[in-house]
Specification:
The radius of gyration is 22 Å and the shape is elongated. Strand 1 and strand 2 form a beta hairpin. Strands 1-2 form a two-stranded antiparallel sheet. Helix 3 crosses helix 6. It has seven helices and two strands, in the order ααββααααα. It has one domain. Helices cover about 70% and strands about 0% of the residues.
């Protein structure tokens, strides 16, 4: 895995993970439970442990933030009717991305289906690993924004409890509102990053063929050793 993608992968999980730690710590502080006292100490072994836990939390929450948090606001049915050329996934980011390309380039007669995206991306990885890694950074950004959105929501819960405990302080109310707005904006940006990722996948794949079968045949043909 290239260093550039590795860095994106780390930050896609590390930054939200640290936010999760901070949000959970705020909730514990708000309810009077045992929590960490944050200060401005220099980088220590404890700081390294916090970063490591944050990275781990980012991975732990990753599946939930997609299947639970993201899909809670962006519900779209799964499943396709391939033989009729129709999709029951019209509101998914991959369907939106494919639909926009078909409208933009009607003369290309694109025969992809939204469900083909993963296999097409695998084909791109085989054909051009460097290009696939650049495309993958967009999905890494989507993962990061999705987790940041949920982290801000957790932080809003903690600050809301403090808002009540502090006698309805306007300062904490402002923090709660800012966290909720940031969470919603981050979630909307998550959708955009997913759509951009799938657009890049379909735009690249169309240079190999106009259908999944054509792309696979192209990749297989190029992979065969040439006879001398």
């Amino acid at each position: 895995m290239p260093i550039s993608l590795g860095i994106y992968d780390v930050f896609a999980n590390l930054l939200p993970g640290v936010l999760y730690l901070f949000a959970i710590n705020e909730i514990l502080r708000a309810v009077g439970a045992k929590h960490m006292e944050l200060n401005n100490q220099t980088f220590t072994l404890e700081s390294f442990i916090i970063l490591a836990l944050g990275y781990l939390l980012g991975h732990i929450f990753n599946n939930f933030t997609y299947r639970g948090w993201f899909r809670l606001f962006y519900r779209y049915p799964r499943g396709y009717v391939r033989d009729k050329g129709k999709s029951r996934d019209e509101n998914s980011p991959n369907e939106q991305a494919l639909g926009s390309l078909k409208r933009l380039y009607p003369d290309l007669n694109i025969k992809f289906y939204a469900r083909d995206a993963d296999l097409l991306f695998n084909a791109i990885q085989i054909k051009n690993k460097e290009l696939a890694d650049r495309i993958e950074t967009t999905r890494a950004n989507a993962i990061m924004m999705r987790n940041i959105s949920f982290g801000l929501f957790l932080l809003a819960i903690g600050e809301f409890i403090i808002f009540i405990n502090e006698g309805f302080s306007l300062t904490y109310l402002g923090i709660v509102i800012a966290c909720l707005l940031g969470s919603r904006i981050s979630l909307a940006q998550t959708w955009k990053y997913y759509e951009w990722f799938y657009k890049d996948v379909f735009r690249t794949a169309i240079t190999y063929g106009d259908s999944l079968d054509a792309v696979i045949k192209k990749i297989r043909g190029d992979s065969k050793p040439k006879s001398r």
